[in-house]
Automatic annotation (TrEMBL):
It catalyses: glutathione = L-cysteinylglycine + 5-oxo-L-proline. CDD domains: GGCT_like. GO terms for biological process: glutathione catabolic process. This is glutathione-specific gamma-glutamylcyclotransferase. Catalyzes the cleavage of glutathione into 5-oxo-L-proline and a Cys-Gly dipeptide. Acts specifically on glutathione, but not on other gamma-glutamyl peptides. Keywords: Lyase. The keyword Lyase applies. GO terms for molecular function: glutathione specific gamma-glutamylcyclotransferase activity. It holds the Pfam family ChaC. It comes from Drosophila navojoa (Fruit fly). Belongs to the gamma-glutamylcyclotransferase family. ChaC subfamily.
Amino acid sequence: MLRLVQDLRLSSNSNSNELSAKVAEIYRECFAELASSSCPLSQNKCNSNSNGQHSTLLQCFDAKPSNQTESIAPSPDDVWIFGYGSLVWKADFPYIDRRRGFVCGYKRRFYQHSIDHRGIPEKPGRVVTLLPGDLTQDRVYGVAYRIAAAQKAQVLDHLDYREKNGYERCNLEFHEYPSTTMPIEVIMYVATQSNDSYAGHVWQVPCIARQIFTSAGPSGPNREYLFNLFIAMQELFPDVVDEHLTELVDCVQQYIKNEEPALLEQALKAQINCILSEFLAKDASEQKQEELAQRLEALLERCQRPSWREELLSQEVQEQTF
């Protein structure tokens, strides 16, 4: 980076065209590949292969129903937890069995703001909750986990904290898929419409998708949550179509394909321009060149973080709005 800076040959007398040319050069040499390297959803991960074999996720699911290192026998005091969002692929608690299946009478929707996992209070993301629907027509597919009686209190305390942003417990019947066994009573967490983070359908799918496209939080990019759920549903329930989920994935992918490269280029060039402009306002000594190189290196390091795209996209979209 220092060699590139030393070759800039800029001075305080450089005009805007010269500055723009140097900004473009730095972007092309150091940042262009990063901005164009987004590959959010691999299609070959979403479908069964041409031989019709089960997906890797389904093979793992069937082969390892428990995540316990030692066998724990089931008991009547065990409880079942139903997950329909991130719990489908990220069960961060001990369980002794798990089943694919569905609950009746609900619809899954990205109507809940996330300010603690896939967004922050200043820029919330979107995650799923369930809305009441038609008991005979509507189903929500997901995974039920059996929690051993001895671990029940620990797991429920953990989930109460994990789902603290507006979610409440409720009990209902879970039906295993694809078998027709007797229903299982499960506990699930639902964000009610009265909680402070409920977003609802005020924004239609394109607006929700744009929020997901530009949001990230402590648990990672919001798009990662959306894509992971979509992939899990395709692999665990290959003959089930979730129209709301599919429409959101398609819309976010279009934003990524059609808008993300240009938005990232604009945002990164603006950052580089700001750094160079500050440099030109000072004496261009060797020490100042080293400081400039360090500033550019810091920007490059920032672009290695998991949620760097969303940070820049959010800023750029907001600036374009105003």
